[in-house]
Amino acid sequence: MSDTQPGLQRLVVVSNRLPVALKKVDDAWAVKQGAGGLVTAMAPVLKNRGGAWIGWAGASSDPDMDVDGLLSDFCSDAGYDLATVPLTKQEVDDYYFGFSNEIIWPLFHDLQTRCRFHPRYWRAYLDVNFKFAEVVARKSTPDDYIWVQDYHLMHQAFFLKSMGVKRNTGFFLHIPFPPPDIFMKLPWRWKVIQALTEYDLVGFQTVQDRRNFMGCLQRLMPEAKAEGRGAVVTVTVGNRRFRLGAFPISIDYNQFSGLAKRPEVAQQAFDVKEALRHRKIILGVDRLDYTKGIPERIQSFHTLLRRYPDMVGKVNFIQIAVPSREEVDEYKELRQEIEQLVGRVNGEFSFPGWVPVHYHYRSLPHEELVAYYSAADIGLVTPLRDGMNLVAKEYCACNNSGSGVLVLSEFAGAAAQLQKHAYLVNPYDMEGIAKALHRALHWGRDERKASMLKLREQVRKNNIFWWVDSFLQAGISKKLDDFPEIETVQFERQ
Predict the structure, then answer these.
(1) What's phi and psi for 305, nearest 5 deg?
(2) I need a labelling partner for 37 at 20 to 30 A (CA). Which of 150, 220, 248, 378 fits?
(3) d(Cα 372, Cα 285) in Å, to the nearest integer?
(4) Which structural domain, as residue segments, surrounds residue 167?
């Protein structure tokens, strides 16, 4: 058990990966803080409040690397503790690449034909979830609030209870939850639903995801009943009661907007425009993944140029694709497909001084990404399915001029919040997207400004800290500010 002070309530975050990356710099291993919304949200909650984060370090098999020593140095600076869950290569292959990303990821994104339902993946998923739960039990106290993140760890509450460990637990699913006709294809459907009912609070990105879960629950447990209205409802199954809520995740609006205002970033944005001779810019930014709809997006831009000859030479499409799962064949094939499509469009339409599609397959430094957001006239965010999609919100936050237009997939979770002032499209409808782009490029300045102002206000009010507060209030009737700063508590690591 942990050696924290009794009676002190801490927030203990549990996720597949720790909020750090281990990187080799000049032949020595170093710990770098990770990027992304979750780290941004949780760092202030945990910092100097005795909080903890439990996860896999993503460690290399390098025998010279002292993982615990490296993390200890990071903890002192970060103001919260880290606890590692060591995983073998086989466990990573079967639990992470296997069950999590070859079954749950495609199934929950409505792409069940990509699923590989291998029984060994399921066994590995349970084994790793049990391993995580053992670390959670050792590194926390009954006073702590255990907040589990995402589909990799759906069985944490179930295993804690099976060990007789009493904890107040919350779970948040960052990806969509599918409707019953899709979820029921999962061979282990009943056990997954049962495991999720063991949490005290289960959170989803949208009300529709919450309804989908409730539909699946009632299909498998017909006695389940929901009471209440609004974002959070109470569910009764037999003598068990728990809560379900919709908590749309967001970004640190002030960080993005403030960065876009910096002179050096504004200069980078101007340089992007200058390099493209101040033509209109359509921007796509995605992790390379088959759920993001990148091939369909390129084909939509191709359709735009074919159907509207007045656009030829006057607009550029920039697609930034961040490398992901490069060792997986499906992702290699996706990359190849995208590169061929880019080549086809550029081969058909380029002329001296103008290349229509600029494709960047790399991670960009944060400032450079913000500069691209600032420079773009249209943010084109068209995933085939997405839990939320924070790119849509980042684009709005960086659009300080207020002149941009957000063209957004109706199947992104962000559409539930932003639909009134974004231009919604069906990501499978390439002619429809081409028409939407053509219209958006011809919107008047006043119309663009009015829409973007409303979008920015929505993102500013419902930011990442609002998300943390709304979940904690539903889970334990507390806010971020209710976790007072203390002298950092260091506890024993594995």
Answers:
(1) -70, -35
(2) 378
(3) 9
(4) 11-249+465-482
